[in-house]
Each structure stands twice: as C-alpha cells, then as structure tokens.
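check this:
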Amino acid sequence: MSNSTLKKSAANSHPGPAGSPTDERADDVRYLEVPGGRIAYQVMGQGPLIVLSHGIGDLRQSYRFLAPVLVKAGYRVANANLRGHGDSSTGFQSISRSDVAGDLLALIRHLGGPAVIVGQSLSGGAATIAAAQAPELVAAIVEINPFTRTQQPNVGALLRIRRYRRGMLRLGGTQLFRSLSAWMRYLDLAYPTKPADYDDYTAALRAKLTEPGRMAEFLKTLKSTPADAEAQLPNVQCPALIVIGSANPDFPDPKAEGEAIVAALPPGLGTLTILDGAGHYIHAERPNELAALITNFLTEHHDA
C-alpha cells in the first residue's frame, strides 16, 4: 500500500495491570496510516512474523498472555488494534472484514512478510480474506472462534440452547440499544473461564469504550456481515487452523460451525480443533494451550 507510513508514538495506551505481560510503555506503540485513519500496534520478539488481530469491542491487550508465549517460542509478534478500537484512530467509514484484511496486509508489507495471521472473531474472517487476496504475504492463518461464514437465524436453537439464547440476547441488546452494559454482560458469558485479571481488564476496556466516538466505532462492526469472508474460503491457498471453544455462545453448535469452515476451504488445508469448555476468548482463557496448538501447527507446516 503505497500511501501507508510507519511511525512511533508517545501517545498513551491502555496497558494491562502492572506486571502483566502487557505492561506496555507508551513508546512501544506504533501507528500505521491506512485509508481513513491509522491503526495502532506493538512489535515484540525476533523470528518469523506472526500478526495478531483481536475481535470486535476489544483491545489488542486481549492477547496479553498469548503474545509473550509466542515470542518465547521464537516468533516476532505484531499485535494490532482493529481500526476504530484501542489506540487506533476513530472516524472510519466502515469496519468490515475486508477493511480489516486490508489493514493487516498493509501492516505485513511494512514489517516484511510473509506472516502468519492469528485472528479472533471478526478478525478470523479478515484472515481468510487476506490469505485469499495476497497469498504471497500470508503463510498460514489461525482463526479463533471466527465469524467467517454468514449466520442464519436459528429460532429452534434459541429456544433449546440456553448458552446460545443468552449470547444472542446480549449481542442484540448491544446493537439495538447501543448498550455498553449489554456488551459487558455478553463478555461475562463469553468467558466461562476468567483470567485472574479479568476485572482489571474489563474495567480498562469499559473505560476505552466510553471515550468519545469509541462505542460508535465498535457498533460499525455489527453492521458488517461475514459474506465477504465466506466467499473467499475456497480461494485460500495456505494452511488454516480453526480453533473453537465448545462453550462459545455465538453458535448453536460450535463444532458444526468449525466443520463447515474447514469443509469450505480447499481440501487438505483446514485443521479443526475444539477445546472443550472454552468460550469465545480462548487466547485469554487458555493461552498456553492455544500457543501449543499454534506452534505445533506451524511446525507441522514448516514451510508456513
């Protein structure tokens, strides 16, 4: 992307609790200019490049436990905020999977690819699009509880499955009422296992989302659909690891959702792992287990 520029910033960020793996200093945060604004990111470690991209209504610090484990395993890790989120700028026209894919590819070009993209939720769909559009820049993708396929309303499942019903009601309340409280209740459900710093982390997230313009940016993500990502699944050319928690409240049948994603990929490229009891935020709930899955996957596909 020819108009992208790289610069360091001394702007304030929302670090994790003192002493946590994201006890960041302000000069660690860098900014990349992209169409419509800029995205914030941090780079740690040396080795093959892994780019982390979080989900909607969240912060890059959601990877506060996973990132240092990957660094210790010998990777250079770039941890990016979604456009409109965290320390990235506000005022973007849209925040779709295609938008985020373009931002991630711009970051990989600046840092020097190819890279492995680890994307959670909406960013899982963005990873699919990036891999399909620029196979020379994306060596492999890891999708954590991804929204990569278009979801159809399932009234029967809403009546039968309490986990799914509660998740959809809280997500619906977030969008319909522009409610931060509904979103925080969704998070409480989506983390069946909470990290020790959960209260501190969600307090920092709530503070960020109450800043002027932040909630409006978050709500833009809920206006997008995964149709663009679903259309690109057959065009992916690199290995793909799909990791889904069995207690994820976003899907009536999380395993079936993962199987459908793998089935839509070209034969032999997709690997599905279901983590029993894990929710939507596996990277914060079970970071060591996820790191082992990622590193073993990349070792198996040693050319990734």
Q: What stands out?
A: The mean pLDDT is 91.
